[in-house]
Amino acid sequence: xxxxxxxxxxNSIMLGCQYSLIAIGFTLFFxxxxxxxxxxxxxxxxATFAGATFLLIFLNLxxxxxxxxxxxxxxxxxxxxxxxxGVVVEKVTIKPFRKSNPIIPILSTLSAGTIIEQLLKIxxxxxxxxxIFPNIIPAGGINIGEFLFGTNEIVILLFTxxxxxxxxxxxxxxxxxxxxxxxxQDFEAASMVGINVDRYVxxxxxxxxxxxxxxxxxxxxxxxxxxxxxxxxxxxKGFSAxxxxxxxxxxxxxxxxxxxxFVETFAAAYIPGGSAIxxxxxxxxxxxxxxxxxxxxxxxxxIDKV
Amino acid sequence: MKRRGFVMFLVVFLLTFxxxxxxxGQKEKVVKIAFIGxxxxxxxxxxxxxxxxxxxAIRQANASGEFPYKIEMLAxxxxxxxxxxxxAANKAVSDPQVVAAAGHWNSPVAxxxxxxxxxxxxxxxxxxxxxxxxxxKYGKMYPEITRVCPKLDAENEFLADWLLTKQGYKTFYIxxxxxxxxxxxxxxxxxxxxxxxxxxxxxxxxxxxxKDFMPLLTKVKEKxxxxxxxxxxxxxxxxxxxxxxxxxxxxMLYTGISGLADQKFNEVAGSAAEGTVIVKPGDxxxxxxxxxxxxAYKDAKFNEPMGAYGQYAYDAAGVILAALKKVGPxxxxxxxxxxxIKYKGLLGTYTFDDTGQTTLVSMTLLVxxxxxxxxxxxxEYASGKRKLPR
Lengths: 306, 390
Hints:
Helix content of chain A: over 70%
Order of helices and strands of chain A: HHHHEEEHHHHEHHHH
Distance between the termini of chain B: 50 Å
Strand content of chain B: 15-25%
Strand order of the largest sheet of chain B: 7-6-8-9-10-13-14
Structural class of chain A: mainly alpha
Radius of gyration of chain B: 22 Å
Number of strands of chain B: 14
Oligomer: heterodimer
Number of domains of chain B: 2
Low-confidence stretches of chain B: none
Number of domains of chain A: 1
Shape of chain B: globular
CATH topology of the largest domain in chain B: Rossmann fold
């Protein structure tokens, strides 16, 4: 029983890593521009496609190279491509509507997401079929008694922790971070004190989208099977996680991501018939937060601002 | 040499034909038969293989010279979506040149289009949707509806019999998707297992589009069943299979029915697919015409493999063509001609009972061996060289 509990805890942490990384993007975008970017989930699945494609190319062209380097390069390319996709999407679907009704960016980003999804389906070879992510990480792992910790799980966990630490330093200790925080606190004041706001918006979108790319790459490593239409749900989960954590708070997004994953996993594991309605449980949690604590777990700042 | 001759013949024939069509302009009479299936979307692999097989039958009919008019296929996409399917059906029935239709791999789509075909009096031969009610309920009410492939309950019954009676497996866990297909799988597999004294240790539903099965499989591991049955289709089946290995459930048999019967499953699940046992309708290799069909399909140079239901789409076309030959291009006459037909097709002789269900039932058991579906009797598992988990 206890072993099963530990395994379920591990399952929820694995899921939580992905949700958190997606949620950070949502929270960064909302923090800086007060918009919800509904195509964020499609950045994520785009990255899974990009990562798989480049891995396949590398594996075919350079069969001898150490796989760690290949993975790193493929991940890097996926991050850069997805990052630029994020920047372009912001320029096309959000920037023109900065002064419009806030409902417009919701619709425009939703449209952008559908476009990305459909283009993947139409132009990727056999795009409507389920795709395979190359199995690059060696099987096996660490066995502690009957507790299995797979190599890919260890890689995902360690890498996510590294990213969290990196994000902490980026936001708290660097000029880029403080400028982003400044813009998110007061957009106009920031531009008045000489911060190039447009540039930092682009930087934020690059960072946010490349975090989704990392999550998408992990998705590929962890599940090995993916399809063009799997981005939307991941996006909704990530968005919910960022709301639960408190929109605008990066650390809230991390906590929200793990909370959502925890609720989903344990609903599927311990409630009879739970796996069919796991999403119901996680979204009930979202609703409870919206009703009783709309600012989220760490979302005090938004209330101050309003 | 023989093959080259055939290709040359085909080329000359098609060339003459297209010239004739060009010269004749609109004077030449055209009769259309609609084909509806998932040509895009999650089940496109199944739909394209069936479409190609259907087209092959039409080409062969035109080449035979037995018809005094040109027969054309009107291929329409239902995208596995009932709404899209209904649109396609409406398009088919509103085209006056369309005399009959073959359709669908997904039962929910068939449920949406059946009333349309009924109201317009156009015969629909179902080639790939296996929901029990399509004939048991609708086929009984509407003479327009017939089906050339076996029903879902027959597949589950066959599989349960093999697992329990022939192989002696005793404990089961059932996972099914929450679509009507998955729920039907659950219903009939449960009956099949319980009837033979098997024990079901747990039942769980999963949503189509779900990808994280680790929590569920961790729970399954605790129960330690001999067999995990999945009632669903390829994408989730492959995801599940990969995660079964990851969860360390290596001494458990993984099985399902024809929803998994696609080469895509082996490709996507990779090495994890090994040892998966499934049942698929039809036993083509017992049939005389099979090698010729495979060769003709290969010669036609389609881009996609024929898939699990290509054979049924081919025979659906055959049924319609045979009826067409008998009564001519008349929608109303075709409806009763198809229902009352006795047609010797690729897989055997087709007749339809009073619900429009074919009386021809045969099943093949397949096992995944080295990344391919291999007929059970020909596999190294049956010869004892490899062993199924238990």
